[in-house]
Amino acid sequence: MKKKIKNVFVEGAIGPDFIAGSIAKHQSKTQIGAHDIFLGQVRADDIDGRTVSAIEYTAYESMANQKFHEIREAAFEKFDLACMHIYHSLGKVAVGEICLFVFVSSPHRKEVFEALHHIVEEIKGHVPVFGKELFEDDSYQWKVNT
């Protein structure tokens, strides 16, 4: 049976209440022994004497959601995971706020450490999400992932 492609996008920053709620929902899943979380936060980078104040995220949503789905399915095949959640911001996210939330769960800790690293690298390398760095002087430039 083909799994439904999920929409991973949320408007604006991913708040601490949302993250805490996601964690709390897993307390009833008693076969899980380990969780690992990646939180991507917008940095106040200094670029050519200008300081980033926010990033405005856009995406080709259907293509990005398809790529997130492929990464998710490949990770479930490669690692012994019980659960995985990915959320990415769209729109303006200020420095210090969370723009990417990846949450993986497994019966054992080794799997979550390895899986999380793999998943985040795949997201950064292959998902068509674009960030426009907004500077304090109202100028901007398109962000390049490294």
The count of β-strands is 8
The CATH homologous superfamily corresponds to Molybdopterin biosynthesis MoaE subunit
Level-2 CATH architecture: Alpha-Beta Complex
Based on Cα principal axes, name the global outline. Answer: globular
Give the ordered list of helices and strands: EHEEEHEEHEE
Low-confidence sequence ranges: none
State the domain count: 1
The proportion of strand residues reads 35-45%
Estimate the helix proportion, in percent.
25-40%
**CATH topology heading:** Aldehyde Oxidoreductase, domain 3
- Based on secondary structure, the structural category is alpha+beta
Explain this structure to me?
By secondary structure, the protein is α+β, with helices and mostly antiparallel strands. It has one domain (9-142): Aldehyde Oxidoreductase, domain 3 (Alpha-Beta Complex), CATH 3.90.1170. The chain has 3 helices and 8 strands, in the order βαβββαββαββ. The protein has helices at residues 16-24, 61-78, 109-126; strands spanning 9-11, 34-41, 46-47, 50-59, 83-94, 98-106, 129-135, 140-142. Strands 1, 2, 3, 4, 5, 6, 7 and 8 form an 8-stranded mixed beta sheet that branches. Helix 2 (61-78) runs antiparallel to helix 3 (109-126). The radius of gyration is 16 Å and the shape is globular. The termini are far apart.
